[in-house]
Specification:
With 520 residues, the protein is mainly alpha-helical. The chain has 2 domains: 365 residues, no CATH class; 135 residues, no CATH class. The protein is 62% helix and 8% strand. It has a 3-stranded antiparallel beta sheet, covered by helices on one side. Strands 1-2 form a two-stranded antiparallel ribbon. The protein has a two-stranded parallel sheet with strand order 3-4. Strand 1 and strand 2 form a beta hairpin. Helix 2 runs antiparallel to helix 5, helix 3 packs across helix 4 and helix 15 crosses helix 17. It starts with a helix and ends with a helix.
Length: 520
C-alpha cells in the first residue's frame, strides 16, 4: 500500500509529468524527422550567418532580416567543432527541435494562470504534440526559439512579481532580435505590467528598469544595424509598416540573375483580414477545434483571466494581419497563437465534458486521442524524404558536372546554394561581406520561360553561361522539351550525360550537355 502510494506521488509529481510530456514531444519530433538534407531557404540564411559569426567571433559585415536565432546557434558552433559542414546544419536542427519541446515548461506555467493544475498539464501536452509545431520544429527556423521566449515572458509577467517582470522584459527584448514581432510582445507585457500594478502609485518608477533592460539589449544590435544598413531596423520597421498600410504600397528588393532588383508590392488590409480569418480557422484543425468554445466559456464571466487572453490575442494579431496584408500566405506567422490556443482548447474541453465528471483515466484517454490525431496529421503532411534525397542527389551531380543550367524545378535547384557553399567550405572558406543569397554563384541558372523556341533559348543563353539542359518528368513541360526528355527528336547538339533512373530513383531527371560547336 505504501509502495502504491509512493508510486502515485511520483506519477503526479510536477517535474515527472513535465519531463514525461517533454520526452513525448521529443520522441514525436525525432520519429518524423530524417536528418541529412541541407537547409535551402530562410534556414540556410540563418545557418550561414551563424557560421560566419562563429568564424569571425564577431558580427559579419552584412545583415539578414533577423539575427537572434543565428546569434544563439553560433554559440554552439563555437563550442562544438565539426569537419563536415552539414553536421553544423544537423546541430541547428537539434537545437530547434529541443527548444520546441522545452516550450512545454513555460506553457505549463502560463496555463496554470487560467486552468487547474491537472488541465495545465493537458494544455502543455496539447501544445507539444500540435502537428504544425512538430513539422516546424525540425526546419531550423526562428519559431521554436521565438515561442519559448514569448511564452516565458508572458508567464513571468503574469506572476505579478516585479523581479520576474525584469526577466520577462529581458526575454521579450531578446525575442525582438529573433523576430520583428517581438516589439509587439514588449508592448503586450508592458500593458499587462501596468495593469497588474495599477494600484501602486510608483508603478512607472518600477517600470524604468524595464526600459533600461530593453535599450541595453537592443542598443548593440541597433548600432550594428546602423553601421551596415545606415539605420536601425527595429522601430523603423514599425514606421515603414504603418506607411505601407496607409499608402497601400511598399518597396523591397529581390534577386534576379544575381542582381538586386527593386520592386513595389501592394498592401491590402481587407485582403489581410480575409486571409487572417481564413488561416486562423484553418489552424484550428486538427487539435484546436474547441478554441471557439473556450472563448465562449471565458466570455461568460469577464474577469482578469478573460482580459489577459483577449488583450494578448488582440496585440499579437497586429503583426500577423500586416503580413497577410502583404499577400504573404503561410501559417508560420500564426504559430505565435499556439500557447494561448492550447489553453483555450483545454478550457473548451473542460466546458464540454464538465458534466461527465473528470477523472485521471478520462484525461489520459482524451490525450491519447489527440496524440493519435496529431500523428496521423504529421504523417500526411511531412516531407516526402525519398523524393527530397533523390532531388539532392540530382543537385549534387549538377554541382560536380555543370556550370550553367536552365531553370525548371525547385525540387533540385533549391539544393544548389547549400551544395555550392559546401564546396567553398571545403576549400578554405572565408567570410565575405555579403549575405548568402546575394553571393556570387558558381552555377548559373537561366530562366527558360521567356523564349519562343529551344534553339533561341540555347543560343541566347550561351553568353550567360548555359552549359547543360536539365529536364524532369514534369507533365507541364512543353511538347518540344517533353520530346527531348523522352529522347524523341533530340537535336544533335544535345548529348545525354545523366539519367536518374540509372540510380533507381523514383524522381526521373535527365541532363543533356550542349555542344555549341555543333549548334553553330
Amino acid at each position: 500500500m505504501i509502495q502504491n502510494q509512493s508510486l502515485k506521488e511520483i506519477v503526479y509529481d510536477r517535474n515527472f509529468l513535465l519531463g514525461f510530456i517533454f520526452l513525448s514531444g521529443l520522441l514525436v519530433r525525432y520519429s518524423f524527422h530524417n536528418f541529412g538534407l541541407p537547409f535551402t531557404h530562410d534556414d540556410f540564411g540563418y545557418f550561414v550567418f551563424a557560421l560566419d559569426i562563429s568564424i569571425l567571433d564577431n558580427f559579419p559585415n552584412y545583415l539578414i532580416s533577423s539575427i537572434g536565432w543565428p546569434l544563439f546557434t553560433s554559440l554552439f558552433f563555437q563550442i562544438i567543432s565539426f569537419e563536415n559542414l552539414f553536421s553544423y546544419m544537423i546541430l541547428q536542427e537539434h537545437l530547434s527541435l529541443w527548444l520546441s519541446a522545452l516550450t512545454v515548461i513555460p506553457v505549463y506555467f502560463l496555463s496554470k494562470k487560467f486552468l487547474p493544475k491537472k488541465f495545465a498539464f493537458f494544455a502543455s501536452f496539447l501544445f507539444v504534440i500540435e502537428p504544425r509545431l512538430v513539422l516546424n520544429s525540425v526546419e531550423g527556423l526562428t519559431e521554436p526559439f521565438f515561442l519559448i521566449l514569448f511564452t516565458s515572458a508572458l508567464a513571468l509577467v503574469l506572476s505579478k512579481s516585479i523581479k520576474f517582470s525584469y526577466i520577462a522584459f529581458s526575454l521579450a527584448t531578446f525575442s525582438t532580435i529573433v523576430r520583428p514581432e517581438g516589439l509587439i510582445i514588449i508592448l503586450l507585457i508592458s500593458i499587462l505590467f501596468f495593469y497588474n500594478h495599477k494600484s501602486q502609485k510608483i508603478n512607472f518608477i518600477k517600470f524604468l528598469p524595464n526600459i533600461v533592460i530593453i535599450f541595453a539589449i537592443l542598443s548593440p544590435i541597433m548600432i550594428y544595424q546602423m553601421d551596415i544598413y545606415g539605420e536601425e531596423l527595429f522601430f523603423s520597421r514599425i514606421l515603414e509598416g504603418t506607411s505601407h498600410l496607409i499608402t497601400g504600397t511598399g518597396e523591397a528588393e529581390d534577386i534576379v540573375d544575381d542582381k538586386l532588383v527593386p520592386y513595389k508590392f501592394d498592401v491590402d488590409v481587407v485582403y489581410g483580414l480575409i486571409n487572417f480569418f481564413k488561416y486562423t480557422l484553418w489552424i484550428l484543425l486538427p487539435l484546436f477545434f474547441l478554441v471557439p468554445l473556450g472563448l465562449f466559456s471565458i466570455l461568460k464571466k469577464w474577469n482578469y483571466e478573460t482580459l489577459v487572453i483577449f488583450t494578448s490575442l488582440t496585440i499579437i494579431s497586429l503583426p500577423v494581419l500586416y503580413v497577410y496584408s502583404n499577400f504573404i500566405e503561410s501559417v508560420r506567422f500564426l504559430l505565435i497563437f499556439y500557447p494561448l490556443f492550447s489553453i483555450l482548447s483545454t478550457i473548451g474541453i473542460v466546458f464540454v465534458f464538465s458534466k461527465l465528471g473528470f477523472n485521471t483515466k478520462f484525461v489520459i484517454m482524451v490525450a491519447l486521442i489527440f496524440l493519435i490525431i496529431s500523428l496521423v496529421f504529421v504523417s500526411i503532411k511531412q516531407e516526402n524524404y525519398e523524393h527530397e534525397f533523390e532531388a539532392y542527389g540530382v543537385a549534387d551531380f549538377i554541382i560536380q558536372n555543370t556550370s550553367g543550367i536552365n531553370s525548371l524545378s525547385s525540387s533540385y535547384t533549391k539544393y544548389i546554394d547549400p551544395l555550392e557553399f559546401n564546396e567553398k567550405w571545403k576549400n578554405d572558406y572565408t567570410v565575405p561581406s555579403i549575405d548568402p543569397f546575394k553571393r556570387q554563384k558558381n552555377i548559373q541558372i537561366i530562366n527558360i520561360s521567356n523564349f519562343e523556341s529551344l534553339n533561341s533559348f540555347i543560343s541566347e543563353s550561351e553568353s550567360k553561361g548555359l552549359t547543360h539542359l536539365v529536364l524532369d518528368s514534369n507533365p507541364n513541360l512543353n511538347l518540344k522539351l517533353k520530346d527531348i526528355f523522352n529522347e524523341q527528336d533530340v537535336p544533335n547538339y544535345l548529348m545525354k550525360i545523366y539519367d536518374s533512373k540509372e540510380f533507381e530513383y523514383s524522381y526521373h531527371v535527365k541532363i543533356f550537355y550542349i555542344n555549341y560547336e555543333i549548334l553553330e
